[in-house]
């Protein structure tokens, strides 16, 4: 399986960094952003395959960021991370085009599975796009 | 939501508590009841009373005046008859005296012929006599010839009266013959002589005319003269020429009607003066006889009033009770819905709090588990693998992960509990909701050595309902069951599908002491509790009941004292 690029967006630095370290240990290409605007900037600079996006963040929250991402790069897959009772916001995220949502704290293996699935879908869509071009 | 339906162990007074509280609430209604009832009675009885009094008064006046009028008419009528009788006799005598000469009438044969003619017209004459101005009986016709023929009337009181006034009607007297009679005498002047024609009238005739006036069984009628001596014999008491049994009416002029009661017997008297003679006709009547219809009317009025009173009383009590029942019902319903609202807002606040707490714990928890995960990852690196404490590190991390996972379960459960926003219909797996509730209470049950036995059907369809409200109901029932058991027992949760009713049925049975039969119908009533004051609101089951009804289901209870209690909840699938 080819590696793919992951962007973790979470305002909780310790959490973000721990996840990043663990994913890197699993040979994944991971970058981190501590806010929505920063994530959008980073998306401008470089292609990412999957974004893991915390719903609850100060300033621009996960839902808003998701909207902006989907506007900018519709084919980037987003997995919502909810630390809150907001199954609703997870569902709302999926309605806005997120691939899935997971609840914090999350078992890394589950997250890995979801990341892979999200990447598969992205690759399929990219291929489909290339064929139709 | 901590409420009880079963009596707490060995606390019989707790039931009395709730009754006392109920009674205090009742006191307010009792006062209200009296106010309404008394007001109603007052406002219906006053008009009724006035109506009865006024109508009866009018009726009584009218009837009494009618009776008095009848008596008056009767008296006038009898007076007329008496006067007519006397006038006729007098006129006959005057005619006789003036159409015959003294010489003719002194002839007893002639007088006898005249007497027979007069007698043929009226049987009231007893005899006829001709008397000269010196009182000597010149001629006599009648049955007492031998006694009266030789009598001189000069000393008789009536003799002077005739000489003075020309015409005379005597009082009744016994006379020489000791037979009650009265006489009519006319003075005739012929040339220089005067003579008197005298007739004796049977006073029985008077009596007949007078007696015709009496009315009823105990009525009476008699004549008295100006000395208040009886001129006719009354039916009851009193003899001729004695004082009458009634009051003295001898001085009466014209017509008098009055009611005079002596002792127990009321009496109506009518007295009227006879024109031809200073006699007074007295008619006595027992007012009870003619007034009997009035008395009957009085009884009827009293009876009808009592009946009306009773009906009004019953009616006002009945309607007041109806009103009050409705009031109590709506008060209870209002209290219930108030409590439900309050409860819902409390739960919402609690939910928000729980969500906040869970969230605040979740974030650091996520960091902890990720860091532990990272350490685990690192332990697989070559250089650390040879560390002598590798085993210990691995154990430690495993424990951290295990307990982080425990905390995660708790926070996720809290979040599940907090997800109670608007009551919405979602697809609900009843078994999952029950499992979640059991999860909440597992620890509590374990401490009390209560086994939670689950007999959940596998083929249960998902239903459209509100999971958080259902959870609330199940938690309430389970809490009650745990409280009821106290220590050592079993709670059995059973679910099954009832295809014909399109229902899913949940049964929660405990092995507690059960509910006494007489309390069973009350347990869904608001404010009914067997817990001590302050420990239960008495609303848990009532709210549960209304929640289930709102969700279109039904909730029932079955209990046998000594064997436990079973709650059955049926929920519609659609």
Task: Give a verbal description of the structure.
The complex is a heterodimer of chains A (133) and B (574). By secondary structure, chain A is α/β, with parallel strands linked by helices. Chain A is built from five helices and five strands. Chain A has helices spanning 13-25, 36-45, 62-72, 87-95, 108-132, and strands spanning 5-9, 29-33, 50-54, 77-82, 100-103. Chain A has a five-stranded parallel β-sheet with strand order 2-1-3-4-5, with helices on both faces. In chain A, helix 3 links the parallel strand 3 (50-54) and strand 4. In chain A, helix 2 (36-45) packs parallel to helix 3 (62-72). The radius of gyration of chain A is 14 Å and the shape is globular. The mean pLDDT of chain A is 86. The model of chain B is unreliable at 1-21 (pLDDT under 50). Chain B is built from twelve helices and 16 strands. Chain B is 52% helix and 19% strand. In chain B, strands 2-1-5-4-3 form a five-stranded antiparallel β-sheet, sandwiched between helices. In chain B, helix 1 packs antiparallel against helix 7 and helix 7 runs antiparallel to helix 9 (390-418). With 574 residues, chain B is α+β, with helices and mostly antiparallel strands. The chains are: A alpha/beta (133), B alpha+beta (574). Chain A binds chain B through residues 12, 14-15, 18-19, 21-22, 25, 56, 83-85, 87, 103-106, 108, and chain B through 355, 358-359, 362-363, 365-371, 373-374, 377-378, 404, 408, 412, 415, 418-419.
């Amino acid at each position: 399986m080819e590696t793919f690029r992951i962007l973790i967006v979470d305002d909780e630095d310790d959490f973000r960094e721990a996840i990043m370290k663990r994913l890197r240990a699993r040979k994944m290409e991971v970058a981190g952003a501590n806010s929505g605007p920063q994530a959008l900037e980073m998306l401008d600079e470089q292609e990412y395959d999957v974004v893991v996006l915390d719903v609850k963040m100060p300033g621009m929250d996960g839902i808003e960021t998701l909207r902006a991402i989907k506007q900018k790069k519709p084919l980037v897959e987003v997995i919502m991370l909810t630390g809150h009772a907001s199954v609703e916001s997870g569902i709302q995220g999926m309605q806005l085009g997120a691939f899935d949502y997971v609840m914090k704290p999350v078992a890394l293996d589950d997250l890995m599975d979801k990341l892979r699935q999200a990447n598969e879908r992205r690759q399929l869509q990219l291929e489909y796009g290339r064929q139709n071009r | 939501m901590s409420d009880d339906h079963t009596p707490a162990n060995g606390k019989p007074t707790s039931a009395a508590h709730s009754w006392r509280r109920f009674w205090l609430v009742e006191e307010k209604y009792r006062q209200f009841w009296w106010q309404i009832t008394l007001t109603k009675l007052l406002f219906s009885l006053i008009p009724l009373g006035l109506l009865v009094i006024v109508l009866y008064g009018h009726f009584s006046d009218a009837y009494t005046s009618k009776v008095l009028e009848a008596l008056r008419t009767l008296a006038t009528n009898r007076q007329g008859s008496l006067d007519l009788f006397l006038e006729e006799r007098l006129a006959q005598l005057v005619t006789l005296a003036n159409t015959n000469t003294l010489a003719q009438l002194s002839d007893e044969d002639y007088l006898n012929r005249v007497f027979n003619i007069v007698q043929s017209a009226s049987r009231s004459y007893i005899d006829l006599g001709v008397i000269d101005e010196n009182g000597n009986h010149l001629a006599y016709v009648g049955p007492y010839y031998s006694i009266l023929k030789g009598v001189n009337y000069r000393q008789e009181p009536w003799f002077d009266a005739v000489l003075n006034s020309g015409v005379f009607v005597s009082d009744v007297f016994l006379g020489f013959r000791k037979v009650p009679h009265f006489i009519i005498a006319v003075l005739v002047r012929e040339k220089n002589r005067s003579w008197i024609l005298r007739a004796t009238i049977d006073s029985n005739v008077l009596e007949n005319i007078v007696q015709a006036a009496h009315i009823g069984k105990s009525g009476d009628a008699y004549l008295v003269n100006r000395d208040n001596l009886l001129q006719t014999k009354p039916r009851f008491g009193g003899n001729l020429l004695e004082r009458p049994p009634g009051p003295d009416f001898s001085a009466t002029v014209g017509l008098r009607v009055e009611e005079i009661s002596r002792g127990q017997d009321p009496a109506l008297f009518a007295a009227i003066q006879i024109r031809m003679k200073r006699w007074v006709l007295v008619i006595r009547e027992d007012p009870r006889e003619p007034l009997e219809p009035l008395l009957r009317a009085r009884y009827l009025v009293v009876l009808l009033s009592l009946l009306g009173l009773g009906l009004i009383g019953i009616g006002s009590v009945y309607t007041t009770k109806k009103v009050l029942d409705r009031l109590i019902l709506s008060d209870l319903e209002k209290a219930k819905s108030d409590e439900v609202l309050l409860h819902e807002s409390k739960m919402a606040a609690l939910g928000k709090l729980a969500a906040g707490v869970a969230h605040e714990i979740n974030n650091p928890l996520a960091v902890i588990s990720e860091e532990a995960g990272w350490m685990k990852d690192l332990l697989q690196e070559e250089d650390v693998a040879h560390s002598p404490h590798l085993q210990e590190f691995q154990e430690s991390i495993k424990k951290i992960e295990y307990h982080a996972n425990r905390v995660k379960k708790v926070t996720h459960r809290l979040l599940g509990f907090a997800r109670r926003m608007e009551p919405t219909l979602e697809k609900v797996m009843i078994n999952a909701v029950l499992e979640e509730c059991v999860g909440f209470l597992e620890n509590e049950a374990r401490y009390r050595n209560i086994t939670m036995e689950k007999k959940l059907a596998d083929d249960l369809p998902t239903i459209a309902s509100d999971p958080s409200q259902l959870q609330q109901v199940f938690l309430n029932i389970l809490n009650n069951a745990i409280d009821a058991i106290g220590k050592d027992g079993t709670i059995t949760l059973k679910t099954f599908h009832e295809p014909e009713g399109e229902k899913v049925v949940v049964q929660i049975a405990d092995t507690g002491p059960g509910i006494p039969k007489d309390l069973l119908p009350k347990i869904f009533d608001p404010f009914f509790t067997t817990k001590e004051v302050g420990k239960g609101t008495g609303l848990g089951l009532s709210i549960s009941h209304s929640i289930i009804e709102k969700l279109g289901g039904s909730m029932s209870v079955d209990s046998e004292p000594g064997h436990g209690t079973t709650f059955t909840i049926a929920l519609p699938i659609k």
